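Consortium newsletter contribution from the modelling node. Members have asked for a concrete example of what our holo predictions look like. Here is one, prepared for the 6-sulfanyluridine-5'-phosphate complex that several groups have been discussing at recent meetings.
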Amino acid sequence: MASEFWGERWANSTSEIAKKYMEVAARKKSLVCLAADRNTMAGLFDLIDAVGPHVAALKTHVDLVDDWTPENWAKFCSAANDADLLIFEDRKFADIGKISRSQMAGIYEPRKWADLVTAHLISGPDIVDGLQAGWSDVGRVGGVLLLAQMSSRGNLLNPDYTDQVVAKGREHSGVFGFIGNGSRPEELSELRAKVGKEKMIWTPGVNLAVGDGEMGQRYGDPREAVLAGSDCIIVGSGIHRADDPASAAKAYAEASWNALIERES
Ligand code: S5P
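And here is the predicted structure:
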């Protein structure tokens, strides 16, 4: 079923997790990853209950939860799995390979519950092997999203850096895809041309209200991001700060799904 909607992305994909994501997205008719940036466990549970049916993945920042405990987190991950959501820890790893492997353990132990993690390639490509080794240490598989662009004003990921990240990441089976800048569709189209047809591009910096956000964040339109080559819109405050998060999530789901249909038809 997913193949009929995802066209060349499905046909070219060699990643088990990318296929899993495309299937979940097709079941829910949503290309939305919720950036679940709430700092209490209760707030996070409320979010899953409210928006679970309308989003395909849940992006976490595990270290910003004030009342985090391993037991509560295990319950939260199990609720996310029950809601048919991929779990994506936005840890933005950046260290050398062996330290990144160790950081997949530690108190938060993302190797045990995260399907996806983000990483900067600033330290070189061994970081991807380190993260993959972290998952293998507990008999799991996962995917790395490399930051090729960022949505924040004044970031230092210049076009030459982006090209190098893409050139290295494209060839690595442990790389699920790239983070692109959802606030600038023209930059995103260029990124898609460089990435090619196979790997995922996921984009933060997306909001139905386009323009500047808080502290240098910038926002672009969800439909335009998908048409420019994004495979998943990462939406935070547009959903979790809405008066009615469920209706907001539904609106983002519809915008993203309709854009995928438009893009592939
Ligand atoms: O370039 C980036 C990369 C990421 S992963 N810009 C971002 O904003 N993000 C993340 O996306 C950020 O950490 C936050 O969790 C989310 C955007 O949230 P929003 O509230 O601005 O939609």
